[in-house]
Amino acid sequence: MRNSLHCVALLLALGMLATPAAHAAPTPFDLNLDLPPVIGESTKPPDCTIVYLTTDTSTDDVYAERMMIEPSDNAVPVAGRMPCPARIPPKLADQAMADCEVRAADPKHCVFADMSRGFERERSINNTAENTARCASDTATDIGIACWKSGTLDVCNVGCGQSVAEAVAQARRRCEAKHRQSCPLTGSLPIIAATPAPKQ
Amino acid sequence: MIEAGPPDWSRPRAGMRIARDLLLAAALFATAPALPVRAQQPAKRILAMPALQWDSTLSSFHTARHQTIADFSALTGGVGFGMSPSEVDNALADPLHGVSWDSLPKSADFTDDIRSFQLPLARAAGLRTGIAGCTGTDSTVVLLFRRQGLFRISYRFFPDASCRDVSGAASDIFARFVGIDRSVALAVHYRTGSADVVDVNDPGVSYLVPIRWHARAQ
Question: Is the residue at B169 inside a domain?
């Protein structure tokens, strides 16, 4: 009887070891608990940042270009964020496009990353939209992209959100609604760069 | 006929048998490969270009972070534009030795007097940093020179049986150089034949930037 109880105890211990938790990666020990949190300059939020996504359809490279906008003298942060201009002039989109074109084998292959239905048949910039291929830091924290593959071409749409998951989900919803395809190819980027760039 | 009855827990030998069987089952479970919690979603890479800083009236901009040739050299293991062939060779982790302008063949891709030498990507330790994707065994780095010095580093990725898709490797190296201000180095990515090519150009020689390599020329 005593031996049996030992066996049951041993089994229970082994059973606990064999649970799925045993398959998980070891808990990271470097949690930086000894480091103080990084405190930013709380009185001055980062400049409004607009991110554009462009793509070179010959290589499927997607480019993100952050445009930081110096605040006007009377600009007041709202909820800790600097406001972005109500109207974004096309010259910002033009610059994002120019920076894609200079890196592409053929400038005509550069388009905005938010594509209309049927883009795969007519790969023209006219079948893309610049105002939905961008996100602004006063209304979102992340920009997401979701795509489906038409042969070798990635057909994509863009979303903005308050988290990576929200930005990607929005891009995915947009892509799936617009193209009536499953859009499993996804990516995201913070709108404001992780390390604020020092002013020149 | 032997009838299977409920185990007699009062008997130590029966308990031991059950324990052995359960132990075996537990051991099999523990050594089985872990099943993924959920399938990994394919990731779409986004290449971040240098940020631009616009003034408050949106009338002008400049690159938000000033970059220099040092930022570029940090990505190439010390190889920089304007270096002579022998200087470039000496900067390589595994130099070829005896490389000089006079010893290099003229490139047929240019009308100007452009010369080059190449080395297998596998041998270009300082230049291939950051490549995580697979590369075909014939993939190379070609270093192109004017008489004034190096003006292009050309990565040419060729798929083969061991690596059928080199686009990941090309994207790895392209992503590193896209983050460099185009006034310092201008990286372009294109495909020719089955090859993926990433050319990293000296922007000071802008008239040569649009001249691409074509696979047929190899």
Answer: yes
